[in-house]
Amino acid sequence: MYKMKYQKVSFFALLCSLYVQNCVADNEIENEPLVFKPTEVKGPVVEQFLGDWTERWIPSHAKRFVNGVEEMSYVGEWAVEEGTSPGAVTGEQGLVMKDEAAHHAISYEFDEPVNDYEKDLVVQYEVNAQDGLNCGGAYLKLLAERPNGEMSNAVPYRVMFGPDKCGINDRVHFIFKHENPISHVVSEKHLDSKPASHLKPGITNLYTLVVHPDQTYEVRINGNILRSGSLFTDFLPPVLPPLEIYDPEDLKPQDWVDEAEIPDPNAVKPDDWDEDAPRMIHDPDALQPEDWLADEPLYIPDPKAEKPEDWNDEEDGDWVPPEVPNPKCLEVSGCGEWKAPMIRNPNFRGPWTPPMIPNPDYIGEWIPRKIPNPEYFDDEHPSHFGPIYGIGFELWTMQPNIRFSNIYLGHSIEDAERLGNETFIPKSKVEQSLLVKQKSENKPSMHADEEENKYLTLFLDAYDTIKAKLPPSITDQLDPYVATIAQSPEIAIAIFAVASSVIAVVITCFYYFSSSSSSSPAPLSAGVTEAEKEQQAKFRQEDENDNIDVSYAPELESTPKSEDVNAE
Ligand SMILES: *[C@@H]1O[C@H](CO)[C@@H](O)[C@H](O)[C@H]1NC(C)=O
């Protein structure tokens, strides 16, 4: 009775949610196809891949060495072309990696290096994984040397920034190189808490990195600041070495007692403690069943067996019939010698050990003394990366048709935002509305044999829809949970058979209201409210905790690109 009622409510809720979603999609104003207009934004580098792009960008087919050993060379081809995904802007050109499972390299060498420490450094570009991206990089490098047309992993960089994805290992890197002013060793500093890429097939994402002259940075995705903080504190290994280190010469004194507890020397083994008592004994209370046949053997010679005719007693020995289970034993509890079953011995105690007591001689944990770090140096300006001679892409990808467009490199956050407002925002609006439409049209075409994944599918679809409407700072937090649920559908089915209709309705309502009040991507503006900062701070902390949980995001060490990223 109760169940019937629930099913009716649930069915009604599902119908409602589908109905509302369809209404939303149908009421969406049909978007005019967008037509590209070259930007007026100026900067050291504003790249829209117009007619003369071949004068700047040189594809590389250099050989590729890893630890001095030649590996696959850069065979991947590049093209500059219009986008192929449904929301693409007519006439807008982008740089596209054309080959699957290939290394691609290309570079743009500037006439004048970009090098102004007094101002913000801003790098921004759009990425569209037009056919999806399961495993591959989409980051760019700001080059420390001119590659002379031979871009490769050997060309040193100042900054590496952008998405990198393989399976559920999905992040946006920000790595900068820092030179130790004493040893002059250059090392990589990796942003510790990396945001997810938020890449989705056919959907354009805008990636922005800002480094301020006050040694702080921002990582923005689609105009939302997902990470911000200090170059000194948020990177691994840290930019500055510790002021003090433990003195390597200071050794623990021989007579130092650091055992906090010892076995009580006065404790005596109790008299009734029998160390030899066995763990298991025969049950003394068990009785031999009345029908037990103690004198019957378990096996008897097979009465039906006959000596084969060709049996030769002299050669084969005496003939013995084979044995079969005694049929009399099958009708009763058992035959042969009866033994009581084994049970736990209530008197079992095991070896006696004295109890532990505080050690009267305990001094404490020994810690070597600290001395000033002889390798310490101070650097007030890790943001002085050095002159940037060009931009290079040097990437491995499993999926082809990853597209880069509207690159900005310069010193003006405002110009980057203006470019984003012109190119990314209108395109993103079209893409998001097409995505919603596509989702709602696909809904009824579910196969009957997918019945048992229905609730999970519904949930994931709803999540995808709402994700497009939420700032990545929130979806970043939700993603791990959703991934966990998606990986164990048997749990999910059980839960969502009950919960999905409710969730779907709530999500749809949320979506309905948020879509009628504001457009999908956040307008690009530099202002960050205190509340936002607070939220970020909280998020950063949670994300750090997330990083500890390796069960959710195992590092996929075997991906070919990881060596570049991790190489010191
Ligand atoms: C970008 O667009 C938003 C929303 O229209 C606006 O508030 C902001 O000032 C724009 N930014 C620039 C630099 O034009």
CATH architecture of one domain: Sandwich
Report the portion of residues in β strands. Answer: 25-35%
- Can you give the mean pLDDT? 81
Name of the CATH first level of one domain: Mainly Beta
Q: Quick one: overall form? A: extended
Secondary structure category: alpha+beta
Number of helices: 9
Question: How many runs of DSSP E, i.e. beta strands?
Answer: 27
CATH domain fold name of one domain: Jelly Rolls
Helix content: 25-40%
Subcellular location: Endoplasmic reticulum membrane
GO cellular component, one term: fungal-type vacuole
Main location: endoplasmic reticulum
Protein name: Calnexin Cnx1
Protein model, in words:
With 568 residues, the protein is α+β, with helices and mostly antiparallel strands. Among the domains are: 122 residues, no CATH class; 235 residues, Jelly Rolls (Sandwich), CATH 2.60.120.200. 26% of the residues lie in helices and 25% in strands. Strands 2, 7, 9, 10, 11, 12, 13, 17 and 26 form a nine-stranded antiparallel β-sheet that branches. Strands 1, 5, 6, 8, 14, 15, 16 and 27 form an eight-stranded antiparallel β-sheet that branches. A hairpin with a 2-residue loop joins β15 and β16. The N terminus and C terminus are likely disordered. 2-acetamido-2-deoxy-beta-D-glucopyranose binds next to α4. 2-acetamido-2-deoxy-beta-D-glucopyranose (NAG) binds next to α4.
